[in-house]
Amino acid sequence: MEINKAKILDFLAGRKILILSLAFLLAASTLLYSSLRSGKKAEAAWWDESWLYRKAVNITNSSGSNLTDFQVSFTLDTASLISAGKMQSDCDDIRITDQQSNLLPHWIEENNPGCNNSATKIWTKVPSLPTSGTTIYVYYGNPSATNTQSGDKVFEFFDDFNSDSLNFQKWQTWEVDGSNAYNISGGKLQLTGGGNTGFITKSYSGNNYRIVSRMIGQSDSGLLCRVSDKDHLYLVRTNVAGYATDYFIRNGSWSGLGGGYPDFGSWANYRIVEFSANGNSLSSKVDGIQMNTITNNTFSSGGIGLRKYGGNPFFDWIYVIKYASSDPSSSLSSEEQSPGPVAYWKFDEGTGTTTYDSTANKNNGTISGASWQTEDMCAAGKCLYFDGTNDVVTVSNSVGNIKTVSFWVKPITTSEQFIDLNGSAYIQSSSGTISATGFTSPTIYVNGKVSSTIEANKWQHVVVTTNTAVSGSAVKIAQISSNYGQVFIDEVKLYPYARSAAQVLADYNAGKAKAASTEGVAVNLGAPKDASAGLPSSLSEGLVGYWKMDESSWTNDCSTATVIDSSGNGNHGKSCPSGAGSQPTTGKFGNAGYFDGSNDYVDIGNKDSLNFGTQSFTASFWVKNPPSTYGRVVSKMNYTGTGDPNDEAGWYVSAISSGLDWGIGDGTNIWTKPTYSYTFTTDQWYLITGVFDREKGFFYGYVNGSLVGSTNISQYGSINNNRRFLIGRRDCSSPSYFNGFLDEVRVYNRALSPAEVRALYEWAPGPVAHFKLDDGSGTSPIDSSGFGRTGSIINGIWSIGKYGKGLKLDGSGDYLEITDF
User: Fold this and answer.
1) Which residues of the chain have pLDDT under 50?
2) InterPro entries from the xrefs (predicted)?
3) pTM reported for the whole predicted model
4) Which CATH architecture has domain 53-150?
């Protein structure tokens, strides 16, 4: 008999793998069992570093069944936290998350006792509450957070009557014996109609639930449950015939169900009344004291309602929660402190000369010279541009114990100044290499990886860590000694510990993928939110020329650079000809340039940043009323018209009334200069984008974000030349002047992707005035647009808003005036 040794070896190897696998599973099971037996739960990652503190809230479920989307409450000593400066005085910075850092809705129970009390009651909705319990987290300690409370998102049904009128999307009139009437004032509803009148829910209906209301229920008032129409419902009456509560049913007519509980307390004051329905059981509570319970199985489901009979009851708020045999209980763990920064400058103010520290440490910076940039030019929200001459942000406070410096930067060159902490510890770059002078054994990261290489004209995430603390006794941003950086900078953070490699990578990925919070941590990479999801880079990435043409006027002398380049590369343009050149007029966004087709143009000059050699590049502009004859919109060329190989290298992108017009030549091969047909409508704006993708070997032409043509250009070599970059003509004796309107001219030193071209078409600048009205006090609200508008409140009063705070205007002499439009 022949023995197959290979099969035996395979069999033994398989047995060995099986044994090892079983051993591993046994060990893992033992560890899991030990962990569960010990009751320890994995600590959740910190939800958002902008919140400095949190407490774990341990929820116990003794109902005997798993609960889903269940309302849970806990109490928090907000008075002590506010007194210690750890929480906003109005509790606006409270947030609730689950263990996976998912944000949960919350509502602070008003006037029972409410914010700034030792036992503030906070409600939330927990997605899953197993019988083994769960843990959630309450965060606080963000001085810039706005109010996000929402009882509607927490409860099955909710109304706090904080509007000026009743919400008839939620309620409908209930009238049995009399006519209904009501008043709303100061966030409270009063029923003033006849007997057996009030309101019932318009659409809400449930089976087993608990109604809870803060109310003055004197003189036979009450709550209704399982309402199917005005004549079919249950009623719990309050303050009637010596009883605190008793029960009635209306099934075509009224019948008493008994269950009276002797009255106590004063119904002249607000009390917390609860009416519960579970199966055939009806029960109630007053101020937490259990009343009598009865049974009745006539109605199994329906809505809820508010009832008036003898007196005129008040209702402060009302909510409905799911029923459970026993309420979940909660206990708070000790306070934890954020692993977040000790200083954090978002640069999102958009106006003024102060950049505020987003931590509670108030390390505010003073801006000298640096200019505010709009969202499309930045990494996250707004940012600052430093011109490399004398622009700087200085911080007067001393920031101690710094072990990590983190920021987003777009340097104009590869040798720039970034951050100086104290005059001897600073971060800069030289010839594309980042150095961290004065840091002990620093680790440098670029875009989430250990690296010291940085590129020009690209947004990059730079982090420097050290295990030896550095003192930030004289923090300066974009200045080191007497040298200044020509940079865009955003999201500067200083940490009191060395961020791990995993944390640095997570920071970069969270920013790049926009996965962090809406409070400003996420890096939006500049493109519009609805169009840029997943874009590999910013619409300001690789931007080497950006002429917004928003100036109010240009100096027409062919020598003064008044057509400003907003890319940061200093490619400012001169308006020509002398004395009679183009002037700004109404544009697609703000102002635009009108070129007369006779002799108007803008001269940028021969700039290295606009010589692209063999690399990819993109030119884009908005155009209105292009001419019927050829005229060059953007070009860097000297074209004789023959198109033979002896013509100089160069390129152009333009538009004529019949389509998108472009060309390329390298001085060796014959020029390619096609026109992609497109019909332009008179007096309408169109976005023209030409992408010279040298890696793919194609030119792609787009109109309004859609591809209209493509051509192979793989045969062309370098297109460098000594010609001027011009807007409105070409650099030769036959200038081919453009006739029409131009706006938002952009040039990139890379090929935009199709998604980016579409995003560029869908992009629009932010508002020219943006008053969030979150100030909460005073008569001069802040403009967040970046234009520094002046607002003046006339007679209006501050109130709770749709988002954060807002203004209440009474319609009689109340208004917000913007005085400098």
Assistant:
1) 1-41, 514-537
2) ConA-like_dom_sf, DUF2341, LamG-like
3) 0.67
4) Sandwich (2.60)
